Amino acid sequence: MFDGIDARQIAPSGPVNPAFAGAGTAASPLRLHGALDGEAVRALRDPFVALAAAAAHDVILDMTDVGYLDGAGVGAIAFLFRQLAARRLGLRIIAASGQPLLTLQDLGLAKLLMAADHGRAGIGARHLPCLAEQRA
């Protein structure tokens, strides 16, 4: 079950909270909680659209408290990535572990989106390849 995102950062539906201005930055990563599945994607649609439109810097998603990631969750992350990339901003994921990390690795996205030891995104982090190309 999707528990949500840090409510101080994004209003569930509606305008961006004042605290949202710094959400997703290195100082204030956007923390996701629970399972990132179809239910979560419905809850994240408006916040991710708002985040992609309002972000002034690259966005960091903290997946410390995410215990499950399915195709819908990967799609939501890809949507956010592409919206940010269109504005020449990047997306980085930190603290993914367990099944969510394995899913990102299986899809070849971990190297693209996970933070490297020196704090930068992986090689080619501004280019999200087509998943069909990776499986070929």
Structure description:
- The chain is of the alpha/beta class.
- It has one domain (about 1-135): Transcription Regulator spoIIAA (2-Layer Sandwich), CATH 3.30.750.
- The chain contains five helices and four strands, in the order E-E-H-E-H-E-H-H-H.
- It has a four-stranded mixed β-sheet.
- The longest helix is centred in the middle third of the chain and has 17 residues, at about 40-55.
State the gist of this model.
By secondary structure, the chain is an alpha/beta fold. It has helices at residues 38-54, 71-86, 98-106, 110-113, 131-135; strands at residues 2-5, 30-36, 59-69, 91-94.
Apparent shape: globular
| Strand order within the widest beta sheet | 1-2-3-4
Helix content: 25-40%
State the CATH topology. Transcription Regulator spoIIAA
Radius of gyration (Å): 14 Å
- CATH level-1 class: Alpha Beta
DSSP helical segment count? 5
Structural class, by secondary structure, is alpha/beta
- Low-pLDDT stretches are 1-22, 116-136
- What is the total number of structural domains? 1
Per CATH, the superfamily is STAS domain
Care to count the β-strands?
4
Characterize the biggest β-sheet. Answer: 4 strands, mixed
Looking at the overall shape, the CATH architecture is 2-Layer Sandwich
Q: Let me know the average pLDDT.
A: 75
Strand content: 15-25%
Task: Give the key terms.
Transcription Regulator spoIIAA; four-stranded mixed β-sheet; globular; 5 helices; 4 strands; 136 residues; alpha/beta
Helices and strands in order, then pairings?
Elements: E1 2-5, E2 30-36, H1 38-54, E3 59-69, H2 71-86, E4 91-94, H3 98-106, H4 110-113, H5 131-135
Parallel strand pairs: 2-3, 3-4
Antiparallel strand pairs: 1-2
